[in-house]
Design a protein that fits this description.
With about 475 residues, the protein is an alpha/beta fold. The protein has a domain of about 300 residues: Queuine tRNA-ribosyltransferase-like (TIM Barrel, Alpha-Beta Barrel). The chain has 15 helices and 15 strands. An 8-stranded parallel sheet has the order 4-13-12-11-10-9-6-5, with helices on one face. α3 packs parallel to α5, α11 packs across α12 and α12 runs antiparallel to α13. It is globular and about 60 Å long. It starts with a strand and ends with a helix. Belongs to the queuine tRNA-ribosyltransferase family. QTRT2 subfamily. It is found in: Cytoplasm. One of its GO terms (cellular component) is cytoplasm. Its cofactor is Zn(2+). Its main location: cytoplasm.
Length: about 475
């Protein structure tokens, strides 16, 4: 398999939002259009023509549970834009120490029912939506996964075997993540040991020839210490890798701090390595990430919105022409389908949306489904929310190509009252009110914990509670 990433164009930064990097380096930290290209053999027809896949970035990677996108049925999933990338977490398959597909030799696509002609499998170990993990003692031999069957050990040898047997196009190498605050992380030798373990585990994966057939993305370690991040990059220079992952959400950094510390790493990383940001997927976070050179994001946001029983109403391009509205009017980014006002509202979720849910169904119907605890409610909401998220990225790519991204992105942040907008940055600097006291939009992921019942699952639990 051959993996290639190329930069097609960049968008010159006109400004940078308050609180973030004030002087971004054009080649390193600016919005850019890239292309991921994968050329591989057809696993089930080796004598036939090979398979070529390409995806333009900025793009999102589909969040999955047990290899399947939540609430999306297979026949509906096929109608979304292709090709796409699905993140598959080994942790979800570790109810026992040895996963069920350990010795499966026909590839992950066949195991999960994915079409290898239009789907890219991207392996990772840990589900990033779970950043409040049960403590386990660090080990040089294994990474600890948290499953429904308890804690499980995953070694670099087992991970290498899974990559060899299942043949994903892309994978993230093992890393010794620090699930603690940044204040705790800097104490003692925690960061130094995490760097050492991560490099050692990467070397073990690279020893397996078949594992080299997958594009390897490496988490950039070093936490909040610039010198430690620089040291990790120096160790990385002599090793083969295809992309990088920014993952310091595990130390509970906010986005501005995350991007700031990432600069110490990205300045020494070749610009033709794609950058994948974990832990931040809300639309306004995506915009700030793209402004600062990020190429890939995880699609946890539309899933979180669905789990709340909400529908997304945001759009990167202003469909409603805000020039006709008062300057101080803030648009809502979501619609609460639980609200009693939806009961007799027979309009689609969004008038201008052409997704299946908006074309066939009404707000009143989805409100009825939610209140009767029908599974179809979250199916219809996820179809819509995923469609809106996909269009959001498509419009962003178009704006970068047209050199309009920075102006349109600031309009977007202002239109929805984002905490990252220039007006809110000024207000916060001149106000004693804590930002945590302000109800900003796009906060669904901040209050979302997949291990706990959500508004939709709470209702299902109540329905079957016979006590």
């Amino acid at each position: 398999m051959k993996f290639n990433f190329s930069i097609l164009s960049t968008c010159k930064a006109e400004f940078c939002a308050e609180g973030l990097i004030k002087e971004p380096i054009e080649a390193i930290l600016s919005a850019r259009i890239g292309k991921i290209e994968i050329n591989k053999d057809n696993q089930h027809n080796p004598d036939g023509p090979g398979i070529s896949l390409s995806i333009e970035t900025p793009a999102f990677v589909k969040y999955t549970k047990n290899g399947i996108q939540p609430h999306i049925l297979p026949d509906v999933e096929k109608k979304f834009p292709k090709p796409d990338i699905s993140q598959i977490y080994i942790e979800h398959f570790l109810e026992k120490d040895t996963p069920s597909f350990n010795n499966y030799k026909d590839g992950i696509h066949k195991f999960l029912g994915l079409d290898e002609n239009d789907s890219i499998a991207f392996f990772d170990i840990l589900d990033p939506t779970n950043n409040k993990r049960t403590y386990s003692k660090p080990s040089n031999q294994h990474l600890t996964a948290e499953t429904s069957g308890g804690l499980r050990k995953l070694t670099p040898e087992l991970y290498s075997q899974l990559i060899k047997n299942l043949k994903p196009e892309m994978c993230i190498s093992l890393a010794d993540y620090l699930f603690m605050t940044s204040e705790e992380a800097v104490k003692g030798k925690k960061i130094a040991k995490s760097i050492e373990r991560t490099i050692n585990w990467l070397d073990k994966i690279l020893l397996v020839d078949e594992a080299k057939n997958s594009a390897i993305f490496v988490p950039l370690m070093g936490s909040v210490i610039p010198e430690a991040r620089t040291k990790f990059i120096e160790l990385l220079k002599s090793r083969k890798y295809d992309g990088v992952v920014l993952v310091d959400y595990t130390t509970q950094l906010d986005l501005a701090h995350q991007i700031s510390v990432a600069k110490a790493s990205l300045e020494s990383i070749p610009t033709d390595k794609p950058r994948f940001l974990l832990g931040f997927s809300a639309p306004d976070e995506v915009i700030i990430g793209i402004r600062n050179g990020i190429d890939m994001f995880l699609s946890t946001y539309p899933f979180a919105v669905t789990e709340h029983g909400f529908a997304s109403t945001y759009s990167f391009v202003d469909d409603l022409k805000m020039s006709n509205f008062p300057k101080d009017k803030i648009q809502s980014s979501t619609l609460n389908l639980w609200d009693s006002s939806m009961k007799d509202d027979f309009r689609p979720i969004t008038e201008s949306c052409n997704c299946y849910s908006c074309s066939k169904h009404t707000r009143a119907y989805i409100n009825h489904l939610l209140n009767t605890q029908e599974m179809l409610a979250t199916v219809l909401l996820q179809i819509h929310n995923q469609h809106v998220y996909d269009k959001f990225f498509k419009d962003i790519r178009t704006s970068i190509k047209n050199q309009k991204f920075y102006s349109l992105s600031e309009e977007f942040l202002l239109r929805y009252g984002s905490r990252f907008s220039s007006s809110n940055a000024i207000q916060k600097n001149g106000s004693e009110q804590s930002s945590s006291d302000i109800d900003y939009p796009f906060n669904e992921t901040n209050v979302f914990d997949p291990r706990k019942p959500t508004p939709t699952t709470k209702e299902k639990i109540k329905r079957f509670d016979l006590s």
